[in-house]
Amino acid sequence: MAGLKSLAKETAIYGLSSIVGRFLNYLLVPLYTAKISAESGGYGVITNMYAYTALMLVLLTFGMETTFFRFSNKEGEDPSKVFSATLTAVGTVAVVFVCLVFAFITPLSSAMGYASHPSFVWVMAVTVAIDAFQCIPFAYLRYKKRAVKFAVLKLLFIVMNILLNLVYFVVLPSLYKSYPDIVGNIYSTTVGPGYAFYINLFCTASITFCFYKELKTFRLSFDRKMLGRMLSYSWPILVLGIAGILNQTADKILFPYIYKGGDAHEQLGIYGAASKIAMIMAMITQAFRYAYEPFVFGKSKDKDNKETYSLAMKYFLIFTLLAFLVVVGYLDVLKHLIGSDYWEGLKVVPIVMAAEIMMGVYFNLSFWYKLIDKTIWGAWFSGAGCLVLIVINVVFVPQYGYMACAWAGFAGYATAMLFSYLVGQKYYPIDYHLGHIAKYIVLAVVVFAMITYVNSSLDTLPAVAINTVLIAFYVLFIVKNDFPVSAILKKIKK
After folding, report:
1. Quick check: is 449 in a domain?
2. Measured between alpha carbons, how far is 348 from 141 in angstroms, rounded to an integer?
3. What is the DSSP track for 370-412?
4. Is residue 306 within 8 Å of 431, Cβ to Cβ?
5. Domain interval for residue 118
6. What is the mean pLDDT of the chain?
7. What value, to the nearest 5°, has the Cα angle with vertex 463 and ends 462 and 464?
8. Does the pLDDT at position 464 exceed 90?
9. Is there a domain that residue 71 lies in?
10. Quick one: pLDDT at residue 484?
């Protein structure tokens, strides 16, 4: 239980930074959707570009983040040497990537549909290269259990990003109308959504200087033997990561190419904005991941590790299902996070959230093949999920638009999750208390159905009131079955 307490503490710190950070970052969504109309397709451009960068980040880190944790906890390995070797490998790949982008910027920007805005491409390329480099120092902070500094740096980036976005999307456009000659030196009406990319680059680059202490220990390391061992471990994780990120981004990358209407970026913007509301699931799973990854590898030698993993899975599902119900129950309130132009896309929110829950479950399940050094399994599972997602997108997006994107993500994560569980029980069996978990899933489905009916039948205020009662019932079920108040109070008194 001591291990679970440590996990809970670190999850709380990471979770606070993730939730607060995402919440602050969400302030950009109403900003963009208020200042960029759905019809213009500008938010669709932002959605599309950030999908590309998410994919490139996985490619540029090529599984070395997880590899760093694995090798730093291996007997006979020097963590400082592992850190230097990892950072050298990732940094070298990042530099080569940036050079290639600049060398082929014209054909690359044309192929992506941004021939008239090549700066969008190279700016985001430099940004993602720096971001990839930063992943290793951030991983080092997690390894050293320096969760506070990790959280502070993540929040610092977001605060800087928000402030500069407010300046360039609110303050300067207003000033430009009165003082075009003066403000025109630092602001242009023709850049549009491009300012989001320039600001991201500036903020990302600035955070790099905050790793001064961590980078002091860094030494260029081209230890072929160590790098060879690390790469043999990481390449299946890379394949896994590519497939995994494609499950999140393939729809946003493919959409402009396969959607038959002339308003592809407009529809993509609506889908992207609505999906942002569902990303509360991503906050929770990300917070859990930050703490769980180093925790699992550190716990791998303990006798009770399997029971601990089982409990972690149970509590993860309990609270993600609660979050799901809260978002759905208060969707009529939360929808004001995005501009009214984008409300037609709200129907994808429950689907995307359910997909995110399955992604979190899949992440929990994924550690069995990492612990036995058989990461190739993850590549197969994620690859299968990715294949399902792409096929559904290609077949159904032309007819059903972004709704097909939402269901494709659901089906893709479900596929990867089921495969990982079934094979994992053969090679690394864990008793996940499925009967207990099933009770929560069934209850959550019933409450969700009732909330959906209430939302469709009543006005906002009475609907929210009834939904609050329904959510409270779910919470009471949790308290009765897994968090008995009387027992907890007795322990506190002792």
Report:
1. no
2. 36
3. HHTT-THHHHHHHHHHHHHHHHHHHHHHHHHTHHHHHHHHHHH
4. yes
5. 2-432
6. 83
7. 90
8. yes
9. yes
10. 61
